[in-house]
C-alpha cells in the first residue's frame, strides 16, 4: 500500500484537522510528519469542537492507529494537557497512539528562546506562535537536541541539564523573565507522563504496516507557503511542510507516496507576519474574518484575510505533486455578491507573472483579478446535486486554472458538512 499525504496549500489553517477526521475511517494509520504545538487542528462533530495540537486528527476514530512521526517537535507539557482534555471521551490513547522515539523534544527553554528571538527582531518579528518551534528545530539540525527516546535513558536528566544550561547562556543576553524551578518541575512531570505511552521506532512501524497492506494517511501541519525552503523566508515555520517532508518526517520512501490531497480555503488567510498579495485591509476583509470566524486555533490571534491567490496555489501544487484538491469554507463566501480570483501578479517594474518572485518579501505585488458572480446563498447542509450554479462555475474555473480536480467541498466546520465530488460528477 501507499502513503497518502494531506497538506495545506496556503499559510495554514486550511481545515486539515476536519478533513483528516473525515477521511480517517478509510485509513488504518494516520501519522503527523512535522511541526508541533504551533499547529491547531479543529474537528467538529456531535456539537463538540476539539482542537488538537500534536495528536493526529485520527484520534477520534477507534479503528485508526495514530502516529506522531520523527519529523515532529513534541512538547511533553502540551502533550499531557492534550491527553488530559481527551480523558472524558474514553479514547483508548494508550493503545492507539504511537510516538516516534526520534521525534525532537521541546524543552521549556525553547519557548523562552522563541520569545527572546522574536523580541530581538522587533518590527521584523516572524509572528511566531512562541511554542518553541524554531529553537527546537535549530537544536535538532545543530545536532544537540533531545529526542523522545532519550527520556528512557537513565542519563536523561543530565542531558536535559546540559542542553538547558547552553540555552541559559543565550538567554542571559535577552530580557526574558521566568521561574525556572516551576518550568522544570512541570516539564519533568510531563516527561514522566509521556513515558507511559508507546514510544516506537515509527519508521519500522509504518513500513511494516504498509507491507501488510494497511492504508496510511500522512497529516501535514502549517501550509506549503510556510515551508522552510519554499515559503516566504524568513516569514516561515522551521519544518518541511511539503510532500517531501512526509518522507523524511515518517521514514517512507518517495515511491511509497500515493495520493497527495492539497487542501485550500476558497479564499486566503494568514496569521503572523509576511507577504500576502491578496490581503484585504478593508471592510471586505473584516467581513470575511467575521463570517469565517478567522481567529487562530492556537493563539486566538485574528487571521489576515483576502481573496484566493492562484499563482501561490499553482506553486504549492507544483512543489507537492498534488493529485486531488479539497476546497474548504465555500460557505464563507456566500456573504459576497462578487468573488475575486487573483490569476496573476503585477510586479513593481510592471512585469506580469504567474510566478512567485524570489524577492517576494520586499517586492510590491499587485494582484490581477478575475471577478465571478457570487452564489450568495447559504450552503449549510448542501448535497452534491444542490451545488448552486455560481459555485459550480467557481469550482470549474479553479479546476481549469489549477489543472487538478477538486474532489471535496466543505461547507461548514462539522464533519457532516462535506460534499464528495465523485468521478462521474467531475
Ligand atoms: P487546520 O489547522 O488546517 O486544521 O485548520 P484550523 O482548525 O486551524 O482552522 C480551520 C477553521 O475553520 C476551524 O475553526 C474549523 O472548524 C473551520 N472550518 C473547517 N472547514 C470549514 C468550512 O467548510 N466552513 C466553515 N465555515 N468553517 C470551517
Ligand atoms: P496549522 O497546522 C497557521 C505561522 C505563525 C508564524 C509562522 C512561524 O494549524 O495550520 P512558528 O510558531 O512555527 O515559529 O510560527 O508560522 N504558523 C501557522 N499559521 N497555521 C499553523 O498551523 C501555523 N503554525 C505556524 O503564525 O507566522
Ligand atoms: Mg490551524
In brief, what are we looking at here?
By secondary structure, this protein is of the alpha/beta class. It is built from twelve helices and 20 strands. The protein is 30% helix and 21% strand.
Written account of the structure:
The protein has helices at residues 16-23, 76-86, 93-96, 108-121, 133-141, 156-171, 180-194, 202-211, 243-250, 283-291, 310-320, 389-402, and strands at residues 3-8, 29-32, 41-45, 48-52, 65-68, 73-74, 97-100, 104-105, 198-200, 216-219, 257-265, 268-270, 304-306, 308-309, 324-328, 338-346, 352-353, 366-373, 406-410, 418-420. 30% of the residues lie in helices and 21% in strands. It is globular. The chain has 12 helices and 20 strands. The chain has a 10-stranded mixed beta sheet, sandwiched between helices. Strands 14, 16, 17 and 18 form a 4-stranded mixed beta sheet that branches. A two-stranded antiparallel sheet has the order 3-4. A hairpin with a 7-residue loop joins strand 19 and strand 20 (418-420). With 426 residues, it is of the alpha/beta class. Bound molecules: guanosine-5'-diphosphate (GDP), 6-O-phosphoryl inosine monophosphate and magnesium ion (MG).
SSE blueprint:
Blueprint: E1 3-8, H1 16-23, E2 29-32, E3 41-45, E4 48-52, E5 65-68, E6 73-74, H2 76-86, H3 93-96, E7 97-100, E8 104-105, H4 108-121, H5 133-141, H6 156-171, H7 180-194, E9 198-200, H8 202-211, E10 216-219, H9 243-250, E11 257-265, E12 268-270, H10 283-291, E13 304-306, E14 308-309, H11 310-320, E15 324-328, E16 338-346, E17 352-353, E18 366-373, H12 389-402, E19 406-410, E20 418-420
Parallel strand pairs: 1-10, 1-11, 2-5, 2-10, 5-7, 6-8, 7-9, 11-15, 14-16, 15-19
Antiparallel strand pairs: 3-4, 12-13, 16-17, 16-18, 19-20
Helix pairs in contact: 2-7, 4-5, 4-6
Bound molecules: guanosine-5'-diphosphate, 6-O-phosphoryl inosine monophosphate and magnesium ion (MG).
